[in-house]
Each structure stands twice: as structure tokens, then as C-alpha cells.
Design goal:
globular; four-stranded antiparallel sheet; 3 domains; Alpha-Beta Plaits; five-stranded antiparallel sheet; Uridine Diphospho-n-acetylenolpyruvylglucosamine Reductase, domain 3; 18 strands; 400 residues; alpha+beta
């Protein structure tokens, strides 16, 4: 049975790591452990968790910068920001529903996996908002990188490196990140009845308009009923989000509706229901189905997503829905993950990345969960890992 460490200070975390360096025993790195089915199984008898490193260290709304300990629950961060009319603009996904896990997502975990939601189109990914980090490396040393403003580039590469490293390079203890004003109004325009290819054209059209859409997604008929408690109109749903001040949203909405009128039946979703819909899109409500069927998160060019799905359906049982203008494709496989077939087809449509977000332990033990790296990049990654974690203590096996 795995044993757990819950350090209450950065110094205690460093002491724990040094003791494991001395004994040569590896550790799983985790925050709230809400993404337990992501990545390949970690081979370690110990787990180092950040949940006791919790609390907002500094927050100045005027500067739109927050500093928080890595184990701080995301809900606490979002509540503090909401009080000041601000938000995490990159909309970090809550993986609990699709993975069937419990616990509380932590802010360190968000940046460790670079979790980014529908607004990534306009606001960028989580790593684009990360300004600084403190962490313990695989030697038990406390490292500080980055600063409190974007123009401070000291250690910026190291900051970006930690974002998306899935705990393989260090144990995060503190993060500094920028926040943005929360838009007072959210409206959604919906086109009903478009096939995947038609939806791709409609999304490209809207994203080319000067309407500043902050979300563009396509929900095929197989998943449409899972959103808003089956209150969306019949047929496929292609949806666009506009946010901002009321007068601005209304003016942009009129332009958008006029531009897409020729695609099909157009309707609007306003206020709370619009916000709920995009939260459900963020959390991939389509495949929060209580199963462990393989779920892939695939990033390709927006124009290639529907072509990839169409080609894959000729070879395997797959259901799919789209975010990021079609550039993010969620794929749930009926049984086998079909990793080799999927990755070959990704190459055939111009390249991209595939991450196995959910699967059984048996599948995760033999299927590479992350996109296999090219030879040169793999060698570089190995050198980075050797420099940051020379004993291979952190999350061994996580990335294959």
C-alpha cells in the first residue's frame, strides 16, 4: 500500500525529498489527486502531496496578480477572485466528472498539467498566465523562477517548463499567476443541425469575424443531450460565446447572428445558462459517463479535427465532440484505445498531439499516454529530466 507525505512547509517538503534521494525511493507527486487516471501508472510506493501547502499568499486586484501555495483548492482561488470581479481567464478544467475521482483540484495541479478550457482561443493556455514558481527539485533543493510581472523574464523558460510537466520535474510549492477581469455578460449563439464538416466551416467563419468570440465548440447529436440537462434544441449544436459589457456584447451578437444566418437555425442562450453550458463544455460533460472507456484529448489544426474523426471512424468505434474551433477533439473509444491507428492518422492530417486522459489501469500500463516524442526532442527531454531530477524520484513511469 502506498504511503503518503503531506508536508506543511516548503522546507519540510525539501527534507522529505532529500531523505528519498538518500534511500533511492521514488515518489508519486500529487495535489488533490483528481487526475488519477491521466498518464501512465506511476511506479512508486510513496506519494508526496501538496494539499497541506494551502493558502493565498498575496493578492492585489489592482495589479491582477495572485500568489498562492500550490495545494490551495481552485474553488478558494476562484471565490477570492469573484469577490473582486476577476477570474482565471484560461478556465482550468475540473477532471473529476470524466475520471470519476473525488478530492479537490489544486492550483498547483492546474499548472502542473497546463489545464486550459474553452477560452484558450482568446486568452491563451494556463502556462501563458503563469508568472513564477517555487518548487523542490529532485535533489531536494528549493528553486525559485520567474517573477510577479510578465516583463520579468528571469527564469521564464523554467516557469514554462514546469507548466505541463505533470510532476515529473519537481514538486511545486507556490505559484504566481496573472488574473483578468471577469466579463459581466455572457451570451451564446447556437446553430442547430450542422454536420461536423459544416460546423468546421461555420466556426472558421465566426473566428474570422471582428466579434471577439471567446468560445467555439461543436456538440454532435450523440452528445448534445448531455448538456444543460437536455435543454438544447434538437440536432447537433454548434455554439459560440461572446463576453463583455452588455452594449458591446449585443452589438457583436447582432453581427454574429447576421453572419451565420445562412448556416441553419440560429438561437441564443443567455445569462446563467450560457455560463453553465461553457462550464460543461470545459469539463467535457459529453463523456462524464461513469465509465473507464478510453478518452483521448487530441489537438490538431482546427480544419483537421473533423477529417481526423471521419477517417478514424472507418477503422474503430469512436464518438467525438469539438472545442477550440475544432482544434481540440475529445474522442471516446468504444473499447480499444487504438493508439497506433490514432497517432498515424494524426500525422496524416498534418500533425498534432494526443493525450490519453482516461483509461483502465490495464490499458494505461501498456499504451503511451502522451504523444511519443521525436528522437531529438526525446533526447532533450531526457537531459532536462536528468538535470532536474537526476535520481528519477518524481512520478516514474508517468510519461511512459
Amino acid at each position: 500500500m502506498r504511503q503518503f507525505h503531506y508536508p506543511r512547509s516548503e522546507a519540510e517538503a525539501a527534507d522529505i525529498v532529500r531523505s528519498h534521494v538518500a534511500s533511492g525511493t521514488a515518489m508519486k507527486i500529487a495535489g488533490g489527486n483528481t487526475r488519477a487516471l491521466m498518464g501512465n501508472p506511476v511506479t512508486a510506493d510513496y506519494c508526496l502531496r501538496s494539499t497541506s501547502l494551502s493558502g493565498i499568499v498575496q493578492y492585489n486586484p489592482a495589479e491582477m496578480v495572485m500568489v498562492a501555495k500550490a495545494g490551495t483548492p481552485v474553488r478558494e482561488i476562484e471565490a477570492a477572485l469573484a469577490e473582486k470581479g476577476q477570474m482565471l481567464a484560461f478556465e482550468p478544467m475540473d477532471h473529476r466528472a470524466v475520471m470519476g475521482t473525488s478530492g479537490e483540484p489544486t492550483i498547483g495541479g492546474v499548472f502542473a498539467v497546463n489545464s486550459s478550457g474553452p477560452r484558450r482561443l482568446s486568452a491563451g493556455a494556463a502556462r501563458d498566465h503563469l508568472l513564477g514558481v517555487r518548487f523542490v527539485n529532485g535533489k531536494g533543493e528549493v528553486i525559485k523562477a520567474g517573477g510577479r510581472v510578465m516583463k520579468n523574464v528571469t527564469g521564464l523558460d523554467l516557469v514554462k517548463l514546469m507548466a505541463g510537466s505533470h510532476g515529473t520535474l519537481g514538486f511545486l510549492t507556490e505559484v504566481t499567476f496573472k488574473v483578468l477581469p471577469a466579463p459581466p455578460v455572457s451570451e451564446t449563439v447556437l446553430i442547430s443541425g450542422l454536420g461536423d464538416a459544416e460546423a468546421a466551416v461555420a466556426m472558421a467563419t465566426v473566428m474570422g469575424l471582428p466579434v471577439e468570440a471567446s468560445g467555439a465548440a461543436h456538440l454532435p447529436v450523440t452528445v448534445r443531450h448531455r448538456y444543460l440537462n437536455n435543454r438544447l434544441p434538437e440536432g447537433e449544436a454548434t455554439v459560440f460565446r461572446l463576453e463583455g459589457l452588455k452594449a458591446s456584447v449585443e452589438a457583436r451578437l447582432a453581427k454574429l447572428v447576421s453572419a451565420v444566418a445562412g448556416f441553419g437555425l440560429v438561437s441564443r442562450i443567455a445569462g446563467p445558462e450560457s455560463r453553465i453550458l461553457w462550464q460543461e463544455i470545459r469539463d467535457c460533460r459529453a463523456y462524464a459517463d461513469g465509465t473507464s472507456r478510453p478518452l483521448w484529448k487530441v489537438s490538431v489544426a482546427p480544419s483537421a479535427g473533423h477529417r481526423l474523426v471521419a477517417a478514424l471512424r472507418l477503422e474503430a468505434g469512436v464518438d467525438a465532440c469539438y472545442d477550440w474551433q475544432g482544434g481540440l477533439v475529445w474522442m471516446r473509444m468504444e473499447s480499444d484505445p487504438e493508439a497506433d491507428v490514432l497517432r498515424a492518422m494524426i500525422r496524416s492530417v498534418g500533425g498534432g498531439h494526443a493525450t490519453l486522459v482516461r483509461a483502465t489501469d490495464a490499458v494505461r500500463s501498456h499504451v503511451a499516454a502522451f504523444e511519443p516524442q521525436a528522437k531529438g526532442l526525446a533526447a532533450l527531454s531526457a537531459r532536462v529530466k536528468a538535470s532536474m531530477d537526476p535520481s528519477g524520484l518524481f512520478n516514474p513511469g508517468m510519461m511512459g
